[in-house]
Amino acid sequence: MARFEYVKARREDVAEIPVKYEKPVRLGAKLFAKVNVAVYKMSGGRLMNKGLANKPICLVTMTGRKTGKKREIPLMHVPHGEQKILVASLGGISKNPVWYYNLKATPDITITADGVTRAYRAREVGPAEKASLWSVIVDAYPPYDEYQARTDRDIPVFVCDPVG
After folding, report:
1. pLDDT digits (tens, 9 = 90+) for 132-160
2. CA–CA dist 107, 160 (Å, integer)
């Protein structure tokens, strides 16, 4: 079992997501994302611009790793100065979300947040930088701490730097 010193939640205090429920969780997230993107775009970002616990949603446009097609997904983000922080948690299930692999393959993305679309380059942070950013991430959305405690997977964190 992985243990990260900066994570305050304890594994034994966090409800696990049984493996048999992971596929439905992934499917549900995918379906909800399609609806979220459509409503967000049709409303000009006025609707479905908040996610869990009323936290801000951004639309991330990226390139599909296998297809090369543009993909748009809604993600909670953590504003950090001019940067955006994206956390590939998927609630702490045992596998990374698909978008993680897309960003790893092609880190040049656009993010639409608060009515502004801007180009970014995403980079996955290493262990030391993740540890230093963790309090900022958890302050923005406290359940991230439980998600990391729930899984043996080292939940990836991306810092997105503005381009241009």
Report:
1. 999 999 999 999 999 999 988 999 999 99
2. 9
Q: What CATH number is attached to the domain comprising 156? A: 2.30.110.10
DSSP state of 138: H
Q: Does a structural domain hold residue 56?
A: yes
Through-space distance between the first and last CA atoms of the chain, rounded to whole angstroms: 42
Q: Which amino acid is at 155?
A: I
What is the rounded distance in angstroms from the CA atom of residue 19 to the CA atom of residue 15? Answer: 12
Tell which residue, 118, 101, 94, 91, has the closest CA to residue 158: 101
Q: What is the C-alpha to C-alpha distance for residues 99 and 94, in angstroms, rounded to an integer?
A: 15
pLDDT of residue 82: 95
Answer whether residue 6 is part of any domain.
Answer: no
For the chain, what is the domain count? 1
Lowest mean pLDDT among 25-39, 85-99, 117-131, 138-152: 25-39
Strand order in the sheet with 57-63: 70-76, 57-63, 108-113, 116-124, 157-162, 83-87, 78-80
Beta carbons of 8 and 145 less than 8 angstroms apart:
yes
Give the predicted TM-score (pTM) of the model.
0.90
Residues 70 and 83: their CA atoms lie apart, in Å, by 22
